[in-house]
Amino acid sequence: MTPPPRPRSVLLLSGGLDSATAGAMARARGDELFAMSFDYGQRHHAELEAAGRVAAFLGVKRHMVMRIDLCAIGGSALTADLAVPKDRAPEGMARGIPVTYVPARNTVFLSLALGWAETLDAGTLVIGVNALDYSGYPDCRPEFLRAFEQTANMATRAGVEGGRRFEVFAPLLHMSKAQIVAEGARLGIDFSITHSCYDPPREGFHCGRCDSCLLRKKGFREAGIVDPTRYATDHGSQ
Amino acid sequence: MTPPPRPRSVLLLSGGLDSATAGAMARARGDELFAMSFDYGQRHHAELEAAGRVAAFLGVKRHMVMRIDLCAIGGSALTADLAVPKDRAPEGMARGIPVTYVPARNTVFLSLALGWAETLDAGTLVIGVNALDYSGYPDCRPEFLRAFEQTANMATRAGVEGGRRFEVFAPLLHMSKAQIVAEGARLGIDFSITHSCYDPPREGFHCGRCDSCLLRKKGFREAGIVDPTRYATDHGSQ
User: What ipTM describes this predicted complex?
Assistant: First the structure.
């Protein structure tokens, strides 16, 4: 068997604009992508449909959707019956850990990606986390990613038998939302296929008022790029 | 609300004799136990039934069985269609990483336990890993557990907001199987309720020939304790 021509990466793909951009950046540097999405009891499936569209756009080798019942663990507005906050100012978002934080979510997702990566002989886990806009999430910080990388190398064959080490590639870590939008646009992403809203009012629409929508809007505005998103709060205008 | 009277722990409970003993040791030191088991596409459900019996014996506050499709990830004789090795000598087991190794399994399990622990306000993850008999598994080594502990403290509210830190309690780490059997017996475990076999031939029986059965047999023999297990290889005698 000839070795794979391109280094393989497992991309954590939510269907939002961050993971789409992170994936496009990994592809641009030459990675062969395998995408992994999670059906974890989100209150809506719009994300997973978006993930499918983004996977097709990125031309991933395989897109795995893994079902995992994070609702059973509870503790978050995204998986439990808590209200998603609306209309918060950026200063409000930055304060403390938001109720939309799902306990240990990135640790769980990275662990599953790691298992798949080991089977695929992939050396990189690609994750679209961002330390600027999500400073409230403990598992979006650089020190968390470094700690996970270390654990990954202890947890696997590579850690025992030597050889290739695992790398966590988080190219958006220190970028602003505007920079992410600009980079994604440069790499040809049609952002209308992505989905960011925590609480979509109806199919095909973003609420325009949750933290995620507000950050998304702000990103396009500051990047000076037309926002193709259909917000339920719009009245015919952008 | 009054604070919980005992420190809470999440126990990873497979239903084997190791996790049963680790749980009994945590209980003996005063922990209030929450048990977590995984239905991860094992080729049989005997383990999960044993986990239910052990949870009842330990008097856990709650027993969660989480479904997670590790088969989709593949790469192991325990989840894929590979043969479980039989009749191997201990020297053979110790060499290299066994085919029964499930990629990143303990990382995935500990991550999910961590998410639940954060929701429960539990500070300890209890795991019955053993570095002596399972030296071939990268994620049963002390350096892996230390790395995970560090990740856990980075990944969670505790890591950002300060306060109580997560501890991984792995009391069997440096014990021989004989010592584990002796300790479990001392703590009153009826080992006939536990299940260790990777490849049970029929309900209520252990094959007696896979690595896990061979280690189990050896443990009872060396501890000088009667082995209550029904092995399919026995012919009426112990």
Answer: 0.85
